[in-house]
Structures are given as structure tokens and as C-alpha cells.
Amino acid sequence: MLIKTGKPFVMENVTNAPIRKDLLLCGEMFGIGVIRHRKFEIEGFKAFQPTHKKHRGKCSEGYYVTVAGHGGDAKHTSLKSWQDGMQIPWMRNKKTLAESIPPAYSKYILEQFLKCR
Q1: Could you say which DSSP state residue 55 is in?
Q2: 40 in Cβ contact with 23 (< 8 Å)
Q3: What pLDDT does residue 68 have?
Q4: Which of 33, 79, 37 is closest to 59 using CA atoms?
Q5: Rounded to two decimals, what is the model's pTM?
Q6: Would you kindly state where each structural domain of the chain is located, as residue ranges?
Q7: What are the tens digits of pLDDT across the range 61-94?
Q8: Are 109 and 47 in contact (CB under 8 A)?
């Protein structure tokens, strides 16, 4: 139905979701403190795939925060650590944060869209 509109669109989901993988983004690509691999199906414009940098370490080693479910690593499960990792200080609910994508991802996709226009 979206394709029939003729309008550009973007769908986001986790890496094993049944959508096209036109773009894969990770927090390490933007220097933020969360490993949050998300794939995007993009229609109506092209987005350059940034290089997926090697992760510097593991969440359990303090390099990143896990923002999912209840957080996994007990050292980094506070609301503040999630807000900082995702760069979303205005969200005050961990369940909502767990369902979000970092604004850096949205900004990147918008910049790619504007380059194509």
C-alpha cells in the first residue's frame, strides 16, 4: 500500500525482521553509547550505507548500554544511562526508550533524503 502512494517512506525494525535491508545502522557509526542495530527499508530515495565500525568492547565491559527489555547488564540499567546511551534525555519512560531509535539515526536518514531531493 505504501508503494502505491508513490511517496517516499522508511520502515525500521530489528535486524531479523522480514523487511528489506536497504540500510543498517548501529550506534557505533555515530559515536553514541548504544549498540542498537536497526535495519531500514527505504523507498523513493537512496541512502548511503556508512561503514559498520568494529565495536570497541561489550556492554558488560562498560563500553555501551543495552536499551532493551530490562537492560541486560545490571550496571547500566538506570533511566539516565539509557537516556545518555540513546541521546534521548527528554524521554522519562524506559519502556518507551526501549521502543525508540536514536535521533542520530533519524537525522542521518533525513540528511540522505535531502541529498536526493
Answers
A1: P
A2: yes
A3: 81
A4: 33
A5: 0.88
A6: 2-116
A7: 777 888 887 655 555 678 898 999 999 999 999 8
A8: yes
